[in-house]
Amino acid sequence: MAPPNPTGFDIKTFANAATSQEWRSRDPWRRAEAWRYTGPFTRWNRFKGSFPGFGIGLGAFLVYCAYEAVFLKDSHGHGHGNNKGHDTIGL
After folding, report:
1. Over the range 1-22, which residues count as b (16 or more CB within 10 Å of their CB) and which as e?
2. Which chain regions cross the lipid bilayer (predicted)?
């Protein structure tokens, strides 16, 4: 039996931990690309930034449509077949 290590470092545990990972985790390109899909670069955060101003523009358009429907009604009846008092050219 080997004498106890005063530092607490076990080379066998270290070697097992270093070699027991699957081969994909040792791929340098996978590790280098992993940051692209975490934090502010998640799929949802990337999609959310693809249409800047769309939410504000849609909200402004809906407010204008509501304003137009409520306040800008044409109450005079122009253009609805009411031709009394207007000169019409009959052919």
Report:
1. eeeeeeeeeeeeeeeeeeeeee
2. 51-72
**How would you write the pLDDT of the chain (91 residues) with one tens digit per residue?**
667 777 878 888 777 776 655 545 666 777 777 777 778 888 888 788 888 899 999 999 999 999 999 998 776 655 556 556 666 665 5
Number of domains in the chain: 1
Asked if residues 30 and 24 have their Cβ atoms less than 8 Å apart, the reply is yes
Q: Is residue 82 part of a domain?
A: no
Burial profile 38-71: b = 16 or more Cβ within 10 angstroms, e = fewer: eeeeeeeeeeeeeeeeeeeeeeeeeeeeeeeeee
Has residue 50 been placed in a domain? yes
